[in-house]
Specification:
Rossmann fold, seven-stranded mixed sheet
Amino acid sequence: MKDIELIAPCHFGLESVLKREILDLGYEIVQVEDGRITYRGDAAAIARSNVFIRTAERIMVKVGGFTARSFDELFEKTKALPWQDYLTEDSKFWVSKASTKNSTLYSASDIQSIVKKAIVEKMKTIYHVNWFEESGAEYPIRVFINKDVVSIALDSSGVSLHKRGYRQLVGKAPISETLAAALILLTPWNKDRILVDPFCGSGTFPIEAAMIGARIAPGMHRTFTASDWENLVTNTDWKNSAAEAEDQILRDVKMSIQGYDIDNSIVKCAMQNAAAAGVGDQIHFQQRSIAELSHPKKYGFIITNPPYGERLEEREELPGLYRMMAESFDRLDTWSKYIITSYDEAEKYLGRKATKNRKIYNGMIKAYYYQYLGPKPPKTNKKQGASSGDSNI
């Protein structure tokens, strides 16, 4: 198959991280938009993107794009697309999602119905039949309309890519795996530096960091819808991607990553999740409150998702909690601190303005990523700081 265009949606505000991942895989960027990136690759890129990309929500194969301001125009232009290059006669296909923004066409259900009908009519002319059993591989279709510009794509991932397969147990207000990975990749943290999450919950930040440090591909232990698309991506492509993922793992790496939480039951969940991700031996989890936060080593990183106070009774407790965070952070004066929260008075109670601040959407919740950058470690002490594998127990 000739080169194809792929669409990778991501969290708003984190497009730069996803762009870097795509370029690192060797693919050409076509377009960067709010919340998604379009890029070009060969058929094997479908497999490699699903297996290796940490920060995209899913990987989609673009079938075509056009402008449509009426349902008749949507029908005719959808029908004109080369569906025979993407769907086989026995394909099971449906429009799994339609979204529209700032466009003349706004009814998602009507868009789904018309696009499905147009594809069926095109398939009838190609295969010269009036009925399709749809007994073959599944090809979910997604439609995006923004300012009357329509993009239609096949969803190659199926279940969202944040479902790595390791997080069977979750705590309250969990952060998604894709968002956690993106926030870590926004920092200069690397496997030789200490990382602590004092509100670790089910362990997502420490686990994603350990996977990044050990170069464990996020999709290597799960399946994808496109695994059955033998007409588009070969079984060899999937096997090669799996072999590439196995070859790049750093099996002897030693990291200093800790996760703390005040709830002992959720700490046990985090430990089980880390073991399922294959990084249980890289992370030290412990029941510990933020007031007890300390570490003997310098120049570490805190990356954390503290309580937001979504319920009124919890919100009343936030000033005291964030003041406590400030006191604990002050004891780690050489460390860099990264905090994602929707609490709009976070900086006030943390006691100082962030070095950098980035607006991030955690699901439908508008949040901010406060970045307090610590000093860089002296070059003469870099090796000493890197060897800080022992935790402050």
